[in-house]
Design a protein that fits this description.
About 3% of the residues have low confidence. By secondary structure, the protein is mainly β. The strands form 4 sheets. The chain has a 37-stranded mixed sheet that branches.
Length: 901
């Protein structure tokens, strides 16, 4: 049966190939110079349908494959040249036709013809006509982008174009939630999209374009269909179902309004089926477009969070979400534009994990000792996250622009945990813990750009950040083994608490002056300063059985720390374009001052450092380049690692800082190659990174059974990391195939602290590699599919493991109005050292019904159809190896109705 099936497929493919005909040739100007990126389109003369299209390569060559015999009309256009149209009568298998274009005094004809092209290229802008690549079954922007050549969308909704991450997404030229690609790809309706514009070398400030290095900046502008402008549009989705003997629901209204002067976007989502519109990680990584103004590294401000548990693979035992967001933009006048957004995300999450953990530590005699611990961990987490940003941009003329932004972030986070620990040292232990915090921050940003004349351009940037957090931690433990803590044994459980209060104030200032030497080179002089002030107070105490509070008054068990850090720097960069080379060498001189005051003593550290950098780009052609980048940077820690008072991290973990920490010094080298051939739709990329680190700030731990006391120190031994990643993809008609891989080798040191305080350094080698291959189709009248396989291998010293993940999905349209979609993933893990194997898989299916002209759509879904109950994972680190069983939501069935507004 299988053999006959493949024979039929082979015959169909062979018939399709032999029935096709090829049109090829060249497009040149009147002087015989090839015109790269010219647009060529083939139109069937009988029904005026498009048979195919091509973009010329650097030699001016094009090639189009058509199916039909008879007359074919070829239309050729190139910006700045008169378009040409010729009719060909196809009789032979291959037809050659060359074109010579004349310079045009009027580009309107070219615009009119390229309007129909699936792909047009105009300088740094690539325009995709959405309908030329879609089948009509797409639901959202992410589905459309996945069909476009050179565009990739990962599982988190982040977009890459030609190997570069998209930094901003706009809708009809207006920022969509500050350009966040995840919100855009998962919420903009596919049927509203007319064109997708890829803006390479993007800089939203016109005066600054070309002055610096914008080669990594890529933006998307989504052009709406005419019927979606000056009208409200959107969709309302509602669903109900059952899963795990529990009622399930989904409500997802979306509303959009766009006009030349105004835009409004409203997104809401409520569900308990595990669909997460805005994660905890999204909230803390959401910068609101604020940029890091430090040159050559600087201070690394870490979160003061208590370390709330994060869900795995966007799955948990139970997840209930509430989400609401609104975004607006208003052209107040010709010179003033105001915009803003507000986001609220609320979630209730239940997590359950069973873990077998092996700890390795060095005892007082210097011998390695292993301990085993089994834990059962149940967590209930409630999070309320809020964001508010307001922006204004004032541009009275082409020579002046003033931007102001303010971003507020406020959240209320709580986590209750019940953990049962059974170890070969302490026996059975029941620990109940609670974490609460309400972090608040406000970040203000002002930017001014001024062009004095053609030779002199100035920019001024200023940021001020204020953060405050008061996390509380409570642990009720039947066994308290830390001798550092003077707890009172009342014969009952120990009730330990810790309160912290951290305030951060950070001000950044940066002034840039550009002197334009000529149209090929410029000088950039910069002056900047960073000032950071942090205050940390913390104390650990015990609540006694009678409710009284027992304070631990020992100074080492409390923190009252003031930390100040400043960086004043001067920079000079020279940019030169010489033929196909763009060379930007530079250096910056920094004066760093770090001071911390604690335990009645002040520690001060001063450093003067010159940090060089170099950026070289070789543009082989417009879509093929090689880049080399070198940078020396410094890295200073913040108050969390400097505070020498004891901090309570968890029931079995304490940490003690180090006031004498100095900066680390990094040397980073990067070599990048990229090629995207619009002629053959062959996309290739390769990237090599090497970094060497000196005086690295490292964690060191003293393990006492299953308990851990952590500290930090600088190490004299350098560490290095070498990584390589590459990818290649090829589109052939309606089939796209891709292969990517990466490998990383890290030479580092693991530190352990002996009971006598001596730090032991052990050199380690950590190697990881991963490979992914996939094939996907984009047929209009046939079933579409995607099949792939990914594999990742890890080796840490003598421990080796491999994870294999085959995956597949299929989309079948039948009976005109029905569409069936299924996706399947299988995960297999094998730890070769310990011979540990585990597997799990997931299958989801959707059946859609929608009549062609109807605004209604109906869907029946099965989520986790195989009823997989848990994700099995193995992890290893310097001191710990663990195997865990992480429980996930059960099988669910849903019926959903969507109405298009």
């Amino acid at each position: 049966m299988t053999k006959n099936f493949f024979i039929v497929i082979l015959l169909l493919v062979s018939f399709s190939v032999f029935s096709q005909k090829i049109i090829e040739g060249t497009v040149k100007d009147e002087n015989g110079n090839p015109l790269e990126m010219a647009n060529v389109i083939a139109i069937n003369q009988t029904d005026q349908s498009m048979e195919g299209y091509a973009i010329t390569n650097d030699k001016g060559r094009y090639k189009i494959t058509v199916k039909n015999d008879g007359d074919i009309q070829l239309k050729v256009s190139y910006l700045g040249y008169d378009s040409q149209t010729k009719v060909l009568v196809l009789s032979d298998k291959k037809t050659t036709k060359d074109f010579v274009l004349k310079e045009s005094k009027n580009d309107l004809d070219a615009v009119e013809i390229t309007y129909e092209m699936p792909v047009t290229v105009k300088g740094d802008t690539i325009v995709y006509n959405a309908d030329s690549f879609t089948t009509g079954k797409e639901k959202k922007l992410g589905d459309v982008l996945e069909k476009l050549p050179g565009v990739e969308v990962n599982t988190d909704g982040e977009v890459e174009v030609e190997g570069k991450k998209v930094s901003k997404v706009m809708l009809d030229g207006k920022d969509f939630f500050d350009g966040d690609s995840k919100l855009a790809t998962k919420n903009i309706p596919a049927d509203a999209i007319k064109k997708v514009e890829v803006l390479k070398n993007y800089n939203e400030v016109s005066q600054m374009r070309g002055l610096g290095d914008d080669s990594d900046n890529v933006a998307l502008n989504i052009k709406l269909k005419e019927g979606k402008k000056n009208f409200w549009f959107g969709e309302v989705t509602g669903g109900a179902g059952e899963g795990g003997k529990k009622a399930r629901y989904l409500a997802h209204p979306k509303l959009f309004y766009y006009s030349p002067k105004k835009s409004i976007n409203i997104i809401t989502d409520m569900n308990n089926i595990g669909e997460i519109p805005f994660t905890f990680r999204d909230y803390f990584s959401f910068t609101g477009g604020f940029k890091n103004m430090m040159r050559g590294g600087g201070i690394n401000i870490s979160s003061n969070s208590l370390g709330l548990s994060l869900i795995k693979d966007n799955k948990a035992k139970e997840i209930e979400n509430k989400f609401g967001a609104i975004n607006f933009s208003q052209e107040a006048s010709k010179s003033l534009n105001v915009s803003g957004f507000a986001i609220y995300s609320g979630s209730k999450t239940e997590m359950e994990t069973a873990t077998l953990r092996t700890n390795t530590f060095t005892d007082a005699s210097g011998n390695l000792v292993e301990t085993t611990e089994k834990t059962s961990d149940n967590t209930l987490q409630n999070n309320d996250l809020g964001l508010l940003k307001l922006s204004a941009s004032y541009k009275p003329n082409v020579n002046f622009q003033l931007d102001y932004d303010v971003l507020f972030k406020k959240s209320a986070l709580s986590e209750q945990n019940n953990l049962i620990s059974d170890s070969d040292i302490t026996g059975l232990n029941d620990i109940k813990s609670k974490k609460e915090e309400e972090p608040f921050s406000v970040n203000q940003n002002t930017n001014i750009y001024y062009t004095l004349n053609a030779k002199n351009i100035f920019s001024f940037a200023c940021q001020f950040l204020y953060e405050k957090n008061k996390p509380l931690y409570n642990a009720i433990n039947s066994d308290q083994r830390f001798t550092l803590l003077p707890t009172v044994d009342e014969g009952t459980d120990y009730n330990l608490n810790q309160s912290k209060n951290l305030t951060t104030k950070k001000a950044d200032l940066l002034v840039d002056y550009y002197y334009i030497l000529n149209n090929k080179s410029n000088l950039n002089f910069s002056f900047g300063t960073v000032f950071n002030n942090q205050n940390l107070q913390s104390d650990i105490y015990q609540i006694l059985d009678n409710g009284n509070r027992l304070n631990f008054n020992d100074a080492i068990l409390n923190n009252d720390v003031i930390f100040n850090f400043s960086d004043v720097f001067l920079g000079l960069h020279y940019k030169l374009q010489a033929g196909k080379f763009t060379i930007t060498p530079g250096l910056s001189f920094h004066n760093y001052i770090s001071k911390n005051k604690q335990l009645s003593q002040e520690t001060k550290f001063t450093l003067n450092k010159i940090l060089p950098d170099l950026n070289v780009k070789f543009a082989i052609k417009s879509s093929e380049s090689i880049r080399f980048k070198y940078e020396m940077t410094t890295n200073f820690t913040d108050i969390n690692n400097l505070a020498e008072g004891v901090l309570l991290n968890s029931y079995n973990s304490l940490s003690i800082g180090n006031r004498n920490l100095k900066n680390a010094l990094y040397h980073s080298y990067n070599l990048n190659y990229f090629s995207f051939n619009m002629f053959s739709y062959l996309n290739m990329r390769a990237n090599i990174n090497y970094s060497k680190k000196f005086d690295v700030i490292k964690n060191t731990s003293q393990l006492i059974g299953i308990d851990r006391i952590n500290s930090v120190t600088n190490i004299d031994n350098p560490e290095d990391n070498l990584s390589f990643n590459a990818g290649i993809s090829k589109r052939i008609k309606k089939i796209k195939a891709s292969l990517s891989g990466s490998r990383s080798i890290a030479n580092a040191y693991r530190l352990s602290t002996l009971p006598n305080g001596e730090i032991v350094k052990t050199k380690t080698k950590f190697t990881t590699q991963s490979y992914t291959t996939r094939v996907q189709s984009n047929f209009s009248n046939w079933p579409n599919f995607e099949v792939g396989f990914s594999s990742s291998l890890s080796q840490f010293d003598q421990s080796k493991s491999v994870t294999n993940k085959p995956f597949a999905n299929i989309e079948i349209a039948f009976l005109k109005d029905f569409t069936f979609i299924a996706d399947y993933t299988y995960n297999s893990y094998h730890n070769k050292t310990n011979n540990i194997k585990n597997t799990y898989d997931f299958l989801n299916t959707d059946l859609y019904y929608k009549k062609e002209s109807s605004k209604w759509e109906f869907k029946a879904s099965a989520i986790n159809l195989l009823n997989t109950t848990s994700i099995n994972q193995d992890n290893f680190s310097v001191f710990t190896q663990s195997s865990s069983q992480y429980f996930v939501q059960p099988r669910m069935f849903m019926f959903t109705v969507k109405y298009e507004l």
